[in-house]
Each structure stands twice: as C-alpha cells, then as structure tokens.
C-alpha cells in the first residue's frame, strides 16, 4: 500500500512538472509566432544619420540638400553646446553636467536624444547636431529609394497615410515649432526649457536653411 501511494504521487509529480514545462514551451512558441506576424513597421525606426541621406541627396541636380544643411547652424548645434556661452547658460540653470552630456540641452541640439541605444544605427553621429532626421523623422524605415519615391508621390497628391506609416515628415512650420523653436518642450512627460528662445517666424527663418529640389 505504502509503495502504491508514493508511486502514484511520483507519477502525478511528473505529469504536473511536464505540463508546466509544456505550457512554458507553448507560451514561448506562441510568443514567437505573434512576433513573426507583427507588421515590420511596428518596429520603431532607427536613426540612420545624415551621411545615410547624403548618398541620394548630395547632387546639385536634386538640390544638394546635404551640402546646404552642412552649411547651416543646425549642423553645428552640438558643437555649440561646447561653447563658453553654453556652459554659462547651463550653469545659470543649475545643470551640473556638461551641456554636451546633459539631456536638458541635447534634447533640442541633436537627434533622438534620450532614446535607447538600439534606436541608433552605427552611422549615426550625435556630433552632427540637428540633422535631417530631427525634421524628417528617423529614417530607418523610409530610407529606401522605392519608399522615398512613394512618399514623394504621396506628398504631391496631398496625402499622408504612408508618411505616417513610415514615420516620415516632409517638413512644415509645425516640424519646427513643435520641437525646438518654442520656449518649452515636453518629451515623455518631462518639460525642457529653451534658454535661447527667439520669436519664430517660419517664412523668414526658412530662408536660412532652404534646400529645395530645383526640378520640382
Ligand atoms: C536611396 C536613396 C535615398 C536615400 C538614402 C534617402 N532619400 Fe530622400 N528621396 C529620395 C528620392 C529618389 C526622393 C524623391 C525625389 C526627390 O525629391 O529627389 C526623395 C525625397 C525626399 C524628400 C522629399 C519628399 C517629398 O515630400 O517630396 C525628403 C524630405 C527626403 N527625401 C528626406 C530624406 C532623408 C531625411 C533621408 C535620410 C534619413 C533620405 N531622404 C534618404 C532618395 C533617397
Ligand atoms: C526646447 C529646445 C531647446 C532646449 C531644451 C535647449 N535649446 Fe539651445 N537653442 C534652441 C534653439 C531653437 C536655438 C536657436 C535659437 C533661434 O535662433 O531661434 C538654440 C540656441 C542656443 C544657443 C545659441 C544662441 C545664443 O544665445 O547664443 C546656445 C548657446 C544654446 N542654445 C545653449 C543651450 C543650452 C546650454 C541648453 C541646455 C541647458 C539648451 N540650449 C537647451 C533650442 C533649445
Ligand atoms: C531644421 C529642419 C530640417 C533639416 C535639418 C532638414 N530639413 Fe529637409 N526640409 C525641411 C522642411 C521644413 C522642408 C519643407 C519646406 C520647404 O522645402 O520649403 C524640407 C524639405 C526637404 C526636401 C524636399 C525639397 C523639395 O523641393 O520639395 C528634401 C528632399 C529634404 N528636405 C531633404 C533633407 C535632407 C537630406 C536633409 C539633411 C541633409 C534635410 N532635409 C535636413 C526641414 C529640414
């Protein structure tokens, strides 16, 4: 009798343990299945850096956007945070870190500040300051020529469905004023102050950075 009871307990134990394992296995495979069916776009786009855009946006005949941008203050926005003026401003605001390390400053002086490492491609350089992707959105999902062309077509037709899907912004007044050209900016619930705010008139300020395609 004694033996019979402990044997059946033993069997029960094995059955229980293996179902727990099987359940774990089942959940694992279900997870894999769900992940594999998730649309590719659900992945947040990576910041690929201005050099990636340069590949197709450097020639004169398309409007040499890369060269023009390189010559603007935007390309020097990170460097600027190393200036005496920047250091003095940060000190005044009670920020202990160097401005080139402080999120309070980087948030408007580089692209993607505060995002996890996984969102940056190898080519991305924070030293490039305010770059293409600050304004046009992280390029990881839209940088392919085929997609760019589709986005261009959609823009010309007045739509924005694909642009939303790929995280692409073709650029407008809202691009500037909803991000850096405002007195305060809130990102993920944290409010940052712009210590150098100047009234922003889009039409006027756009003249400083205009980079249009001459053939359109
Ligand atoms: C493989 C080539 C290629 C790369 C890389 C590329 N583009 Fe483009 N892009 C194009 C083409 C082609 C067009 C459509 C025609 C044109 O404007 O020259 C275009 C158009 C655009 C437009 C205008 C779309 C509209 O609304 O008409 C913007 C803005 C733009 N690209 C930004 C970027 C940014 C930012 C990057 C880097 C993250 C980038 N592109 C990388 C090829 C590329
Ligand atoms: C909300 C966005 C934002 C934040 C946050 C921000 N900046 Fe700026 N900063 C700007 C913009 C936009 C300009 C350009 C001003 C203009 O021309 O309208 C600028 C310009 C500057 C300038 C040059 C203008 C001047 O007065 O000489 C310095 C220096 C500067 N920022 C330092 C800092 C420092 C230091 C921090 C962090 C403590 C910081 N910024 C945080 C948006 C911001
Ligand atoms: C500070 C914001 C900003 C930066 C940085 C920026 N752009 Fe733009 N871009 C805009 C805005 C706004 C527009 C639309 C308004 C316009 O063209 O007059 C635009 C338009 C464009 C267009 C369409 C031009 C046309 O003729 O329709 C292309 C292509 C483009 N950008 C590519 C780039 C590339 C490539 C870079 C980086 C090398 C870049 N942009 C950097 C804000 C920016």
From TrEMBL:
<protein>
    <recommendedName>
        <fullName>Cytochrome c-552/4 domain-containing protein</fullName>
    </recommendedName>
</protein>
<feature type="domain" description="Cytochrome c-552/4">
    <location>
        <begin position="52"/>
        <end position="137"/>
    </location>
</feature>
<dbReference type="Pfam" id="PF13435">
    <property type="entry name" value="Cytochrome_C554"/>
</dbReference>
<dbReference type="InterPro" id="IPR023155">
    <property type="entry name" value="Cyt_c-552/4"/>
</dbReference>
<dbReference type="InterPro" id="IPR036280">
    <property type="entry name" value="Multihaem_cyt_sf"/>
</dbReference>
């Amino acid at each position: 009798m004694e033996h019979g009871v402990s044997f059946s307990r033993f069997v029960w134990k094995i059955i229980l343990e293996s179902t727990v394992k099987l359940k774990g296995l089942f959940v694992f495979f279900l997870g894999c299945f769900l992940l594999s069916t998730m649309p590719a776009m659900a992945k947040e786009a990576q910041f690929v850096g201005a050099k990636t855009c340069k590949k197709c946006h450097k020639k004169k005949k398309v409007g040499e956007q890369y060269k023009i941008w390189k010559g603007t203050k935007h390309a020097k926005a990170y460097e600027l945070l190393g200036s005496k003026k920047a250091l003095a401003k940060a000190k005044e605001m009670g920020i202990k870190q160097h401005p080139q390390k402080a999120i309070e400053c980087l948030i408007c002086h580089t692209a993607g500040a505060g995002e996890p490492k996984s969102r940056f491609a190898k080519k991305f350089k924070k030293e490039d300051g305010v770059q293409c992707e600050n304004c046009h959105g992280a390029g990881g999902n839209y940088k392919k020529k085929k997609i760019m062309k589709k986005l261009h077509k959609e823009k010309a037709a007045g739509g924005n469905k694909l642009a939303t899907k790929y995280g692409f912004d073709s650029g407008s007044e809202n691009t500037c004023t909803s991000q850096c050209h405002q007195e305060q900016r809130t990102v993920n619930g944290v409010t940052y102050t712009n210590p150098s705010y100047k009234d922003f008139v889009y039409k006027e300020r756009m003249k400083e950075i205009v980079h249009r395609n001459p053939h359109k």
